[in-house]
Amino acid sequence: MGPAIENIAIVSRQKVRASIIEELIKNSFGIDVNTFVIDPNEVLNHTKLKERYLIILDLMGVDIPAKKIISELKKNYRNSAIIALHMYRSANLVKPLFDFGVNGYVYCEPTKDELHEAIQKVVKGGRYVPSFLLAK
Predict the structure, then answer these.
(1) Three-class secondary structure of residue 101 per DSSP
(2) Minimal CA–CA distance to 7: which of 76, 54, 77?
(3) Using CA of residue 48, residue 66, residue 40, residue 125, what is the dihedral sign?
(4) pLDDT tens track for 85-102
(5) Sorting pLDDT into bands at 50, 70 and 90, what band is 49?
(6) In sequence order, what are the residues at sequence separation of 6 or more whose Cβ sits closer than 8 angstroms to the Cβ of residue 55?
(7) Residues 29 and 116: beta-carbon distance below 8 Å
(8) Is the dihedral of CA 22, 63, 73, 126 positive or negative?
(9) Is residue 8 within a helix (H) or strand (E), and if so which, with residue range?
(10) CATH no., domain 7-134
(11) pLDDT tens readout for residues 10-31
(12) What are the boundaries of each domain within the chain?
């Protein structure tokens, strides 16, 4: 994924959490970023993501196992990067998400600054691991 942040898809069934994440993104990057929320089951058959997208995957808002949805997203949207969102605070639980193919991970209640940093790093081709996991 290139350095421009233009399209961000938030994959979740949890509408309240998704709208909070969407608001954090808008407050952080401004109105030039196109964000939208999509149901996890629809995203696997959706044609709207044919362009390069950053996908924020709310793993607490999906009924599909993490390994399956991440591998399907990586297969269907090769040009897209994925930031996983969950309540895990243990490296032993987060590391498999990177093994499955995510490019970044944030705790389920990220600050605006943390989410901004994660998005910036991932869209530039990097990997974002939160500081609380690096310290362990």
Answers:
(1) coil
(2) 54
(3) negative
(4) 999 988 899 999 999 999
(5) low
(6) 8, 9, 11, 43, 49, 73, 77, 80, 81, 82, 83
(7) yes
(8) positive
(9) strand 7-11
(10) 3.40.50.2300
(11) 999 999 999 999 888 888 877 6
(12) 7-134
